[in-house]
From TrEMBL:
Highest taxon listed in the record's lineage: Eukaryota
PROP1-like PPR domain boundaries: 26-195
Keywords: Repeat
Stored Pfam families: PPR, PPR_1, PPR_2, PPR_3, PPR_long
Official protein name in the record: PROP1-like PPR domain-containing protein
Keyword Ribonucleoprotein: no
UniProt keyword annotation of Repeat present: yes
Matches recorded under PANTHER family: OS03G0856100 PROTEIN, PENTACOTRIPEPTIDE-REPEAT REGION OF PRORP DOMAIN-CONTAINING PROTEIN
Similarity section: Belongs to the PPR family. P subfamily.
Species per Swiss-Prot/TrEMBL record: Lactuca virosa
Positions of PPR repeats: 60-96, 202-236, 273-307, 308-342, 411-441, 442-476, 477-511, 512-546
Amino acid sequence: MSRSSSSSVQSLDMSEENDHHCADYAELRSNMQNLAKSSGITKALQAFRLMRTAAPGKPTIYDYNSLINCCFKSENLCLHDLSTLYSEMKTLGLSPNASTFNTFLKGLNLIGESKVALWVTIEMCNHAFTPSFTSLSTLLKKCSDSMELEDAITVLELMMGLNYIPTEPQMILLINRLSKHGMTEKATLVLYKLLDKGYFPSPYIYNPIIWSLCKSDQISIALAIFCSLEKKGFVHNVCSYTALFYGFCKKKLFKEASNCLNKMTTNSRFYPNVRTYTTFIKCLCDNGRIQEALSLLGRMEKRGLDPDIVTYNIILRALSNQNMVHEVFDLFQTIYQKELSPDRYTATALSGLLKKGNLGIARTLLHDIFYGGSDMDVAVYNVYYCLFSGFKSKELSYVIECMIKNDIEPNNITFNTILKGFCKGKSMDEALEYFQSIKKPDLVSFNTILSASCKKGDSKMVEKVIDLMKDEGFKLNVVGFTCLMQYYCNVGKLNDCLDVFECMISQGPRPSMVTINSLMIGLCKNWELEAAYRVFCNLESYGLSSDSNTYKILMRAAKIEGNDLLVEELQRKCREEGVKPNN
């Protein structure tokens, strides 16, 4: 065979071998991609490593990038897998390119791993690659959304270092989050960094900072920022002025607040709105300046602004707390005349009248709210039951039907509040009947009816309740034991009372000072001062410390019995412990 023929055969063999390697390499690459998408990172990496034997110089960084991309399409990917992937690149000595980092960032942003994405971004910069505006913007939003605010600030600094200016919605989101979560100082630094870059933020970006400062009693700093921005040519809006106005009100700087309000009324750009006036009205009401609040309400209406139900609720609460019955009634008439709908806050605003004992008008007004189709919640109904616990059973049933009709599920607080009302009545049998109608009574339910039975000295009812507790698998807690001890003392069964106390000491629950004081009252009423004093002397062994009521109980009993030595001893102990007995 000639030399030329031999050379041709060699070339043909090498070509066939290369084709064979290429076929193996392509097959391994395809297999690797499929495994990455379906079977997990371990098998995909095995296929990736086999590619080194398929062809020289393989796998390349492009194969690695393909592996990353396919892994992110897998449903089983975890952070450990990503760490393994990155380590593999280092092990093979592959040099990442821009596409490597961008593929990582795209995948990490998709799965919400903002912290890892930030680390990859910093690595990208360390390798002298520039992240795109889009990738950094996406990361900034992800960090802000997931409340990784320190990371969000780092991303923002990276962006500004590259002369990327975030969009207004992104800045509003970040500064709003920083301001609302106690990071107002950092929000302010972000604002001034933007200003240094020549960025001209709108009031929607910096208003959250002013609001946050004013809410945290830092009106002087808020005012300084407000004036600084004004000097730079910024035009504030009504929200900016309202924030400042709120700050003055909160610090009770009424003169400054009034001047601020007057300035707002001179310019249509920041003319005060309903929220502004409501802020001032609330501040005046909170500080007992109701007449000024009513005067401001009148000025507000004269300027063509209609107060909403929030404004009226604030004034209504203040009038109610001051027991200004006629004014409350007149304001209700105004609410209905303006065709406003009272809400759950209107109902709770009447609590002041109820505390002052004006149940008549409060009940009339509440009745109109409840049956007028207003949107109530279970908490308001519970207050309603608590305040009017003497309802007849028909009325109670009707109100519960209204709750269910309005898709409000009565809870245990509801049932226990109603039960407390029954317990205040004359018949404990009715209370027991209602108690047994509760589907899932809790320990509060049992304590409520047990306490009432003990106070009324109804021994049969006490036994029934304790038996019911055993049947339902409930054990007496410290409240229940204290009720029993009071009952035994009241009916003269001191031995039974002491047995209960000994049971608490030996088996638990540990008595409270309410328990101890109740026991001492019972003993002293039954002329057992010596026994009460022994309990007092053993307080430390029970893990308890005497309070002013304890001394008051013992000293009163000692004086009644003429035990002057004990009175002097107790007075000495009071001085040593720095306790002042209640009169």
